Write a sequence for this structure.
């Protein structure tokens, strides 16, 4: 099977090539919209006005196709198709796969949505310590914190 995968670039977007804009719950939902749109080659995800929503912009170009349109934008993320090599694929549904991985925030045999504290704005943690002590840490990355349980979220990047 030959195809493409999506690369991601935090704090970057592709401008001037938008073919569709919508509100989504997370990056994965935006990715699904792109896969379902015949002209989509990449997408941008921006924080929305509501802490549980994001703005999804589908693009008809990639950063490689329009490098001059690829710019920095803090808090937003870019995802673009990248060509990959051909690999053999088994169609035997009874044979377990060991090479597949779930999208971040999804886990298990069926890649079901994770409800780990701090991973998404819809379920912020009260502190970094809470994330670590609960076992919800994913190591380096972005975490959502609502220290005062007031709805005023902060995004922390741990490196």
């Amino acid at each position: 099977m030959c195809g493409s995968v999506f690369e991601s670039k935090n704090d970057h977007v592709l401008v001037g090539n938008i073919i569709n804009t919508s509100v989504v719950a997370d990056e994965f939902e935006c990715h699904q919209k792109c896969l379902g749109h015949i002209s989509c080659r990449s997408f941008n995800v921006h924080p929305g006005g509501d802490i549980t929503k994001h703005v999804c912009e589908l693009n008809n170009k990639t950063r490689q196709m329009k490098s001059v349109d690829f710019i920095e934008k803090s808090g937003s993320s870019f995802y673009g198709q990248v060509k990959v090599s051909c690999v053999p694929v088994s169609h035997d549904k009874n044979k377990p796969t060991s090479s597949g991985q779930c999208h971040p925030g999804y886990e298990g045999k069926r890649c079901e949505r994770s409800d780990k504290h701090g991973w998404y704005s819809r379920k912020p943690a009260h502190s970094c310590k809470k994330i670590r002590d609960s076992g919800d840490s994913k190591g380096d990355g972005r975490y959502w914190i609502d220290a005062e349980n007031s709805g005023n979220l902060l995004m922390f990047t741990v490196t």
